[in-house]
Amino acid sequence: MARAATTSDGFNAIAESRRRDILNYLADYERPVGDIVAGLGMAQPAVSKHLRVLRSTGLVRVRRNGRHMFYRTNAEAIRPLHDWTKMFERLWQNQLSRVKERAEAKQKLLDKN
């Protein structure tokens, strides 16, 4: 089965780890491409390519100020990704609770002996 295009949706866009790095880097502040290049130690063409994908899926917003472009993570576009992953957080919480209950039950048995 052919893989979906990286620009088809946010899930495909974040499949690339460097794009996740860029989203994290832009989460707190809007930044120009040069700052992203320097901050993440990536080549400028690679950063531009990744930003193009992130922009096309709406995960990153851009603001132009004269000739300068400033990029920032679009939190609203990330919400569906967050909501989907929350389901797995609940799953892992249940798993961890069960492991804890078994460990405590085993410890009680050991304490009785």
Briefly characterize the structure.
Helix content is 65%, strand content 12%. The protein is α+β, with helices and mostly antiparallel strands and 113 residues long.
Describe, in plain words, how this protein is organized in 3D:
- The structure is a single chain.
- The protein has 113 residues and is of the alpha+beta class.
- It has one domain: Arc Repressor Mutant, subunit A, CATH 1.10.10.
- The protein has helices at 10-13, 17-26, 33-40, 44-56, 75-112; strands at residues 31-32, 60-65, 68-73.
- Strands 1-3-2 form a 3-stranded antiparallel β-sheet.
- A hairpin with a 2-residue loop joins β2 and β3.
- α2 (17-26) crosses α4.
- The mean pLDDT is 88.
Topology:
Elements: H1 10-13, H2 17-26, E1 31-32, H3 33-40, H4 44-56, E2 60-65, E3 68-73, H5 75-112
Antiparallel strand pairs: 1-3, 2-3
Helix pairs in contact: 2-4
